[in-house]
Design goal:
287 residues, mainly alpha, two-stranded antiparallel sheet, 11 helices, globular
Length: 287
């Protein structure tokens, strides 16, 4: 992932000024090495006894045969979980990207690079949560809200008059479907005592929904392709259309990522309808 991101940066750096080249080059290296350090760092050993661990809010996890304890006694400690810190950094990177798109459009490469950085960090916060045993309700909500708001923000930028005003209504409907389907799915799953991505929550859903959450390759293609469809549209709006091995960015955007974008809209629609059906069944049982 690091090599891929660094290669993309070297590719894009041909169109940025030398000052931004140096700044962003230093930022990218420092950024990924910092998170690499976090991934390999082990939590400190706990000197607490088993009895005290049982009486407080502790979670046990194995690291190479040695047992460590992670604890969270206050809300502030949960807010400072490493995955949540990554989530805050995602918010900052997204806001910085949109600010540059508005006030410094000539530095569009840096702004879209910040946006891609926020998107890539979505992978790291999940890895950190599992590695450090720091899953939290706050982290799950923060992750989803950041995903929904960042995608909606980029769709709004693309609908500006200097980009794709002809697609404004389509972008608006997709954003509404994205927000509505995920909110309904989370509400239906949470009130039913399950996670909206779990097999239990989707056992009676349409087969495409089960594929989406159970087949990781399909899930990754839809999510990454959907996001990069908007990203590539932004690049194409700035007349950036490089060719490689007979394919250019325009073809990659519309024929590869465009299919993922379409599938994601179908999945969102199925997710919303499945949630409506689940809630209606719950109403019948409650009567």
């Amino acid at each position: 992932l690091f090599c891929l991101s660094y290669s993309c940066f070297l590719f894009f750096s041909r169109v940025v000024s030398s000052l931004f080249y140096v700044i962003f080059h230093s930022f990218l290296l420092s950024f990924f090495f910092f998170f690499f350090f976090l991934m390999i760092r082990r939590p400190p050993r706990s000197t607490l006894s088993s009895s005290s661990a049982a009486s407080d809010v502790y979670k046990r996890q194995e690291y190479g045969g040695t047992r460590f304890l992670t604890m969270a006694k206050t809300a502030m400690e949960v807010m400072l979980y490493i995955p949540n810190l990554i989530g805050y950094l995602r918010v900052v990177a997204t806001l910085a990207a949109f600010t540059m798109m508005e006030f410094a459009p000539e530095h569009w490469v840096l702004s879209i690079s910040l946006y891609i950085t926020s998107f890539v960090l979505d992978l790291f916060d999940g890895m950190a949560a599992r590695h450090f045993n720091q899953t939290s309700i706050l982290g799950g909500v923060l992750d989803m809200v950041t995903d929904r708001c960042s995608t909606a923000g980029l769709a709004m930028v693309l609908s500006w008059s200097e980009y794709y005003p002809q697609y404004r209504l389509g972008f608006l409907l997709c954003v509404m479907l994205d927000f509505g389907s995920h909110w309904c799915a989370m509400y239906a799953a949470a009130t039913g005592g399950a996670h909206h991505k779990s097999a239990e929550a989707n056992k009676d859903a349409f087969f495409l929904m089960r594929w989406y959450y159970e087949v990781y390759a399909f899930f990754g293609y839809c999510c990454v392709g959907h996001e990069f469809f908007y990203i590539f549209l932004f690049m194409l709006a700035h007349k950036f259309n490089p060719a490689l091995a007979g394919f250019n960015l325009h073809d990659l955007c519309w024929y590869v990522c465009g299919l993922a974008w379409a599938l994601k809209q179908i999945v969102n629609l199925c997710q919303m309808l499945s949630s409506f059906h689940s809630l209606a069944e719950r109403d019948v049982k409650a009567q």
